[in-house]
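Hi all, a correction to my earlier message: I attached the wrong file for Glycoside hydrolase family 3 C-terminal domain-containing protein. Here's the right sequence:
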Amino acid sequence: MSTPSSPTPFSAAVAAVRDGRPLDEAVDELLSQLTREERLWLLDGDLPFWPGMADMLTNGYNLTPIPMGRIERLGIPGLLFSDGPRGVVMGKSTAFPVSMARGATWDVALEERVGTVIGRELRAQGANFFGGVCVNLPRHPAWGRAQETYGEDPVLLGEFGAALTRGVQRNAMAVVKHYALNSMENARFKVDVTADEAALHEVYLAHFRRIVEEGVSGVMTAYNSVNGEWAGQNEHLMEGVLRGMWGFEGVTVSDFIWGLRDAAASLRAGLDVEEPFRQQRGEHLPADLEAGRARWDDVDRAARRVLRTQVRHYASLAEPEPSLDVVFSPEHRALAREVAARGMVLLKNDPVGDAPVLPLRRDALASLAVVGRLADMPNTGDNGSSDVRAPEVITALRGLTEALPGVRITHVADDDPAAAAAAAGQADVAVVVAGYTAADEGEWVGGDVLTDPELLALFPPPGDDPAGQSFAAFMAEPGAVDSISGGSAGGDRASLRLRPVDAEIIRAVAAANPRTVVVIVTAGAVITEEWRDAVPAVLVSWYSGCEGGRALADVLLGDVDAAGRLPYSIPVTEEHLPHFDRDATAITYDKWFGQRLLDRDGHAPAFPLGFGLSYTSFALTDLAVSASGGDSLTGTVTVTNTGSRAGRHVVQLYGRPTGIDATADDFPTRVLLGFATVELPAGASARVTVPASTRPLLRWTPSGFVPAAPTAVIEAASYAGDPGAAVSTVTL
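and the right structure:
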């Protein structure tokens, strides 16, 4: 949405800021023109609760922009919300690979391009507020919404969230979520997460800080409580850390429907907007103000932030408003295909005969068996708030069929190991597609949420509102609650392994055809110990978006190098992971998860953080490290493509603080500092500069951050713990 063509007080404020007037002066003048009723109107959604709720649950979620705080009298556009992060959930937009797949590219420039496209599609459809910069750290890979975030490491999360923010904010205000400590899905409305200040600042808040520094416009709070207080009314997190320590100047918004429990308390604590409808604040704030439970100074503080964020955004817009033609355009689909291919991670590629099984050779391929229930299923991720309704999704079967004209392709979709083996035995190569769907993992939309008395108490009374009465009648119908979830409840994963029948199919197919490739559709880590030894090749293809099938063919056939790298570690057993109870009402988060926990406990991973094979090979030599100023450093390393074809490599910079014992010192022995990608022809070398942060080498104390050790060994590596890393030492 552009500012109105006819002059309004809002457009005048925007024009004045563009002409050099101080932003705060323009905002204060605009605020002075609002009545008290209009100031309250800024602090929640515009739609009445019951009509909004009924429409969202029966017609569809976020089909059009959700308005919050639009005041037509003054031309204030309001916050016009569209969700993400897989793309724009409104309309029929481009479905990109899920964020975890994009994190596997380790390429922030590519992610910024994704953000630019998302911003254009969002703006073309009338929205200006993108709630899709999701960077919660998946403490355990069973977390149902792991697909919405980028990886297990704070540096990876922070840099990708910053890149998406940069791209989106060319056209829309970006919102980072869910602040904070949200990585349990089934229990998200009831769990209290306890974490000490060191764990908060060193781990769980570090990436939010990075994205705030990038200039993100909004921060969405989490559903869970943190150290005994709901995140949507947690003054320490919002006013203390977010604004007091980090200097955040944007707008804070609640998560939807159940994002706060007390209207006045949330306002006092620093929450600016209750999303998405007129709910608790519309019901209670006027009386709270009258009774002194809330103050008009707090109203004005929130109103000023809401206005300031909008004026700053519109004053900074430089790109012309795109037309609807950009939505799901060929250009955007091409980017979705590029990203999907770049993120796929090759975990195993053993020789069969005289060469690795991948890439497949077109000239040696007359027949192909494609096995698995997921091979011809449009499967872009969960069915929750991140679902993007792309007009078309290219499945794995279709992508391979298009790429291999003239090749006889047999598809076995049934869970039948014997039939799969029979088809594989008659083919040159067998590709087994296995993994998960929205029924297995994703946002929790289980019906018990809508029957929980504590949550229902947050709804305004239906009274004589026809929409409220209709909703209540609908909910009383048999099967109504289940119909809302569409039969795909999602939630936290019950298992980190493929279904037992999938393992049977894989072993049966591999026994029938030695040239078997397993393609895993997932978001989080999958433990593969019970079948991986039977197959020569394993590729993680993720939930790969609307062009995922074509991207899969690109990688399997070698048109694109296998260039993805794991954005998390994969253990050999669930016993090497932190405790996880998806129904917990209380849990403590410490610093230990993922690669850090494996390192501390001396457990070798099945695959370490950053691991991934290429169709060529690379060597890293001659690392030089220099200070960049502040809390940054730069590593420069020679990367050589030692193989026989062109390829892309990810250079990862790790730091090992000297003299640290992880258990005794409660600090990791190795931390990711930065990363960079490079593409090289066969035999070529290049000096690659890797920007990095020293923050992961700092320990939190009551007086602030201090170095965990006086010096650190810096490793330029291909993955965490790479024995071929180039090393250098720095003083901190």
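Sorry for the mix-up. The mean pLDDT is 95.
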